Amino acid sequence: MPATLVDKVSMLVSSNLQSLVGQVYKTKNTTHFFRHYLQIEEQLGEVEQAIREADEEAKDLQQKGLRCSEQRANLDKMVDGFLVQRREKEAARAQKELNQLERLDDLYRQQAHQLDAKRAKLLKARDTLEVRLSLMKEEREKLEAFVAEYRAQQRGQTASDSEYRVVD
Asked: What is the pLDDT averaged over residues 137-159?
């Protein structure tokens, strides 16, 4: 049975609507999706940079702590030596420096503890972003396959729709 003019127009409108929906999907959603994907990659890079910086800070704090411990050990020996020599003023001065170094060493330990907590949060954030990125890679592959299939389908429909074109 030959297609009526209403059938042909209905097919044309349906095809155009499907094409419009496909274009909106391709341009807006894929653009939004890829923008979001790139943002996650960028965030992951920033988190990894922050982890490297935290590692460097931890190394610096560790070195400062070691130097401080060495100085404390030397001052402690000096205090003992001054006391053995009955040089109380020098012993008191050295003890005062020793107390300051102990406070400084405590400060370094607190900073190291805070840095460890910060690093743990960064590692957790990195793991979360890596999982999200791998899921988005899978979604991207599915989306690209869908777009390729959609384009192939559109090419196939345009060839078959040529039969139904209304010619003036």
From this structure: 76
